[in-house]
Amino acid sequence: MAKIKHRALTSGGTSEKPAKRPRVAWMDESDDEAHSHKINGAEALKSLKFDAQSPRPTKKQKMAGAGPSGSKQAAMQEQRKQLPIALGRDAIIQEIKDNDVTVLVGETGSGKTTQIPQYILESGLARNGMIAVTQPRRVAATSLASRVALETQSQLGSLVGYSVRFSDVSSDKTKIKFVTDGMLVRELMGDPEMERYSVVIIDEAHERTLRTDVLLARLKGILKKRNAVPTEGKGKGKERAPKNPLKVVIMSATLDADKFSSFFGNAKILYVQGRQHPVAIYHTSTPQPDYVDAALRTVFQIHTDQPTGDILVFLPGQEDIESLDKSLQLYAKRLPQDAPGILTCPLYASLPASQQQQIFVPAPKGMRKVILATNIAETSVTIPGVRYVIDSGKCKEKRWVGRGVGGGFDTLLTRDITKSSAWQRTGRAGREAAGSCFRLYTEDAFSALPLSAEPEIRRCSLVASMLQLKCLGQDLEEMEFMESPDQEGIAQALMALYLLGALDDRKHLTDLGRRMAFFPLEPALSRAVLASVEFGCTSEVLAIVSVLSASSKLFVDTTDSRESAREAHTKFRHISGDHLTVLNVVRAYEEVLQAEGGADGRKASRAALKDWCVRNYVSHRCLTEALEIRAQLREYCERQAIDWRASCGDRVGEEQAVLRSLVRGLVQNTAFLQPDGRYKQVIGHSIVKIHPGSSLCDKKVPAIIYDELVYTTQIYARGVSAIPRNYIAEVPLLKHKGS
Ligand code: CDP
Ligand code: MG
């Protein structure tokens, strides 16, 4: 492995530092020399012998330190008192008491998310209702709920709970509920004034997700209603007070809080004085196009050259994390016997709950923990013990590509981070002591980064939010947002909802639209479920939709097992393409689930199921999650008086019915074959190719539907099925197409 040259940030680089971030100290030139010599010294790495096994921790060692035993609990309570926010507790509560809206800014790790809800609870401010704490990501919502439950010495789901899509761990006793911002928007449909909450905390507001912006816009209206002083009645004081007032707290880790304050009529801004130790910053001397490889080498450079302390690596997504994880484990095995070992901990959005808590457990003695995270570890989750940060400079961003009515698509793109993210990532190295941050990009590249990200409302599809707001009697295009969506985005969403039959030609919500919004699914998928009622195949469509809604992919297909995976997948393959292939997998899995248990009627053991999945190169995690999702979707169907057992019976009828249902939902995801073998969108202008991972990859069929488009060197359709052209013509608004 060649070494990567890192140059320390020279003092000139400090001009890039936002004026209000004084707590990060910078190395001067002389320190720089000394340090970079140490980092760059080729000898250290060369002398590393990669020839012996390193001790891996046993399960028992891994679990050491977990669980709130008596002394642990005491230590945790002591730690709570030491948090920077603890000093400001009374002042903060007083401000929240005195104001409808409070904006709270504090450095990551200062205790905002875990402490503020508890302070509010203890203060009695939430006597009449619950406290909601929103998070943009589900991993953050669930892991923070676990932490606060631990701190309050309660069972998760009683006093403290969470609610994220397809998983609700709360009860009548719940007072503090962590929710994804998307979940709280959904709740609005059943509780438009958020009456069950006394306090709504919008956390991580700086991320400006679309759902957060929708919530902020709605809260403004709700506050006016709920906090208005009744004009009726002659009474004074208490009698004139609003019946069920609402408090809103907006929390952010970045300093640009003025926007939130002015949106809420110059709401009070409180700053929590954080604690930040100096962090030395290093940039690479040359650009590193292969950031995963660069990260790998840097981890070992730190591991061999630097004193103890955990390493936090920021990567854009799960695939890169898994790939680096593999390489690290491979090389770690070849560390000399007496060298400290490496313990890797991945952290990304779809990480199963069972692995989440592992991140917070200290590494066993003599081991160095290497956390591989997406930007989730930037501000929402603070991991103790980190002294070194490796920043790939990349993140994944959801973006609507090729905007325009009918055209374009939402896709996840790997892109450069912003300066604001770079500073946040750097800060993670200096939480507990002085640290170092290794940026895998040059100083020039850093200077060229944009300052902060564009809010999602300006760059993502508005379809789902527009539908939800319609159900609340609100027109997205007329609402007051912190930043308004652009006309193109609005036109695209209106068109999509019209094509789905959710809006009529006067932009009014239809009964169908209301029923679509009821399901916790993308509008396109709920439309397919509703269409399945008409075609008598709800059981089949629910199975497929559940897999599509799971957070991980069904088919396991890594570079080193591609051939065997393909072979294993052949037996599931359906001639029409990927959707019915998915159905075949679910059916085969269910057969194993039922059959393995044998005569005593018990279900198959987890190990047997896992084994079956491994042998067939399908993801056990995806299938387990999909079956849970399906169980929930069945409940939603029951509430809508839909018979989820409805099934076609015969295989030919089934294929037609399922594909027809899917076309109703994926109407915008249809394309016709072109003479050159590529496909052109029926609605929209993109020319697409079938993804190499699809079972239809090298087939030419007259028309296709697909789940999504991915944009790499060209535009690929993923999750593809062949359909007769006339299925498209059957969609009520597309009669002229396809015939
Ligand atoms: O929200 P903010 O970034 O201000 O901080 P927080 O999430 O409330 O975290 C406060 C402290 O609790 C941090 O120092 C974390 O290290 C610690 N914490 C933890 O040890 N385990 C968790 N699961 C969550 C937080
Ligand atoms: Mg927080």
UniProtKB/TrEMBL annotation:
<keyword id="KW-0347">Helicase</keyword>
<dbReference type="InterPro" id="IPR014001">
    <property type="entry name" value="Helicase_ATP-bd"/>
</dbReference>
<protein>
    <recommendedName>
        <fullName>RNA helicase</fullName>
        <ecNumber>3.6.4.13</ecNumber>
    </recommendedName>
</protein>
<dbReference type="GO" id="GO:0045943">
    <property type="term" value="P:positive regulation of transcription by RNA polymerase I"/>
</dbReference>
<dbReference type="GO" id="GO:0003724">
    <property type="term" value="F:RNA helicase activity"/>
</dbReference>
<dbReference type="Pfam" id="PF07717">
    <property type="entry name" value="OB_NTP_bind"/>
</dbReference>
<feature type="region of interest" description="Disordered">
    <location>
        <begin position="1"/>
        <end position="79"/>
    </location>
</feature>
<dbReference type="GO" id="GO:0003725">
    <property type="term" value="F:double-stranded RNA binding"/>
</dbReference>
<dbReference type="InterPro" id="IPR007502">
    <property type="entry name" value="Helicase-assoc_dom"/>
</dbReference>
<feature type="domain" description="Helicase ATP-binding">
    <location>
        <begin position="93"/>
        <end position="273"/>
    </location>
</feature>
<dbReference type="InterPro" id="IPR048333">
    <property type="entry name" value="HA2_WH"/>
</dbReference>
<keyword id="KW-0378">Hydrolase</keyword>
<dbReference type="GO" id="GO:0006397">
    <property type="term" value="P:mRNA processing"/>
</dbReference>
<dbReference type="Pfam" id="PF00271">
    <property type="entry name" value="Helicase_C"/>
</dbReference>
<dbReference type="GO" id="GO:0005524">
    <property type="term" value="F:ATP binding"/>
</dbReference>
<feature type="domain" description="Helicase C-terminal">
    <location>
        <begin position="295"/>
        <end position="473"/>
    </location>
</feature>
<dbReference type="InterPro" id="IPR011709">
    <property type="entry name" value="DEAD-box_helicase_OB_fold"/>
</dbReference>
<keyword id="KW-0507">mRNA processing</keyword>
<keyword id="KW-0067">ATP-binding</keyword>
<dbReference type="Pfam" id="PF04408">
    <property type="entry name" value="WHD_HA2"/>
</dbReference>
<dbReference type="InterPro" id="IPR001650">
    <property type="entry name" value="Helicase_C-like"/>
</dbReference>
<dbReference type="InterPro" id="IPR011545">
    <property type="entry name" value="DEAD/DEAH_box_helicase_dom"/>
</dbReference>
<dbReference type="Pfam" id="PF21010">
    <property type="entry name" value="HA2_C"/>
</dbReference>
<keyword id="KW-0547">Nucleotide-binding</keyword>
<dbReference type="InterPro" id="IPR002464">
    <property type="entry name" value="DNA/RNA_helicase_DEAH_CS"/>
</dbReference>
<dbReference type="InterPro" id="IPR027417">
    <property type="entry name" value="P-loop_NTPase"/>
</dbReference>
<dbReference type="GO" id="GO:0005730">
    <property type="term" value="C:nucleolus"/>
</dbReference>
<dbReference type="GO" id="GO:0016787">
    <property type="term" value="F:hydrolase activity"/>
</dbReference>
<dbReference type="Pfam" id="PF00270">
    <property type="entry name" value="DEAD"/>
</dbReference>
<dbReference type="GO" id="GO:1990904">
    <property type="term" value="C:ribonucleoprotein complex"/>
</dbReference>
